[in-house]
Specification:
The complex is a heterodimer of chains A (about 150) and B (about 150).
Chain A lengths: L2 H12 L7 H9 L3 H13 L3 E8 L7 E7 L6 H9 L4 E8 L7 E7 L2 H14 L4 E5 L2 E4 L7
Antiparallel strand pairs in A: 2-4, 2-5, 3-4
Chain B lengths: L2 H10 L9 H9 L3 H13 L3 E8 L8 E7 L6 H9 L4 E6 L10 E7 L2 H15 L4 E12 L5
Antiparallel strand pairs in B: 2-4, 2-5, 3-4
Helix pairs in contact in B: 2-3
The chains are: A alpha+beta (about 150), B alpha+beta (about 150).
Family (chain A): Belongs to the Ahb/Nir family.
Keywords (chain A): Lyase
InterPro entries (chain A): AsnC_trans_reg2, HTH-Siroheme_Decarb, NirdL-like_HTH, Tscrpt_reg_AsnC-like, WH-like_DNA-bd_sf, WH_DNA-bd_sf
Chain lengths: ~150, ~150
């Protein structure tokens, strides 16, 4: 990645103004022209550095309910259980996380329109996945992602 | 939630088109005026329902390889203070309070990003000495099965 790409990535994480020509506004901050910036961003998307440019939504303020869920899955079944969990659109992140002394190794975040909806999905998961599971609802958000310097 | 707001958000949750006037493209596809879309999105930002408009990166690809979830056992009366200190570290991208349940005693969750596991460990040690809590565990991500935005 070259210097200008790094600067673009850093600026794009901070944010894009919601105006008619957002990339024109950003190009002024970066000191490149709009066409060049658009080309560079398309490349960064194609090459997979950027996943998407879009709204970062505060699910709590939209009235959604979210939780972090952890399951203790035997090693040889993790891929299979993870694939099952991934089928739910309400699951946004799903990771294998391992630490000494912690039985839970599959960690995923889930958010739904209401508590009922969330409970319904978790029940469905529990019916299909017969391993110890804990649900940790979001009680308070001190910080929600993310800027780091590339 | 307002149905028109929802329609707009559903249309752009996977990303806006990378063109000079992205909201004009969105306007064409859902039949709502470009100016109205922009006004509604800015209102959602003012209301805090949208945190910001920004890029989501593939961290691994950009060299931020290690992603550690550090969980802390924080005395309940210190949660406010400790949560705020943790959030102030730039390497901490998320910081949430969650309840203790069953056999799970950790109530503060911080996501720490670094270039290597060692870098993450050093950051966590710095945080630990600032908040004076040594009852914590680092869970590194060994495999990413899914990472998307929240679906509306």
């Amino acid at each position: 990645m070259n210097e200008i790409q790094k600067r673009i990535l850093n600026e794009l994480q901070v944010g894009l103004p919601v105006v008619e020509r957002p990339f024109f506004e950003l190009s002024k901050r970066l000191g490149v022209d709009e066409d060049t910036l658009i080309q560079e961003i398309k490349l960064l998307l194609e090459e997979g550095y950027i996943r998407r440019i879009g709204p970062i939504i505060d699910t709590n303020k939209l009235g959604m309910v979210g939780a972090l869920v952890a399951i203790a899955v035997p090693d040889d079944r993790v891929d299979q259980v993870a694939a099952f969990i991934n089928r739910f659109d309400e699951v946004s992140h799903n990771y294998l996380r391992v630490a000494d002394g912690i039985p839970y190794n599959l960690w995923f975040t889930i958010s739904a329109k209401s508590q009922n909806e969330l409970d319904r999905i978790l029940d469905k998961i529990r019916e299909n996945v017969n391993h110890p599971m804990i649900t940790l609802p979001t009680r308070r958000i001190f910080k929600i992602g993310v800027e780091f310097r590339v | 939630m307002d149905p028109v707001d929802l329609e707009i958000l559903k249309c752009i949750q996977d990303g806006i088109p990378i063109v000079k006037r992205p909201f004009f493209e969105v306007a064409k596809s859902i039949g709502i005026d470009e100016k109205e879309i922009i006004a509604r999105l800015n209102r959602l930002i003012d209301e805090g329902k949208i945190r910001r408009f920004a890029a989501s990166l593939a961290h691994r690809k950009v060299g931020i390889d290690a992603n550690a979830m550090c969980v802390w056992d924080v005395p309940d009366e210190r949660i406010e203070e400790v949560g705020s200190i943790c959030a102030s570290f730039p390497e901490v991208t998320h910081c949430y309070e969650r309840p203790r349940v069953d056999d799970w005693q950790y109530n503060l969750f911080t996501m720490v990003h670094g270039r290597t596991k060692e870098e993450c460990e050093k950051i966590v040690q710095r945080i630990a000495s600032r908040i004076k809590i040594d009852n914590y565990i680092i869970l590194f991500s060994e495999k990413e099965y899914k990472k998307t935005g929240v679906r509306l």
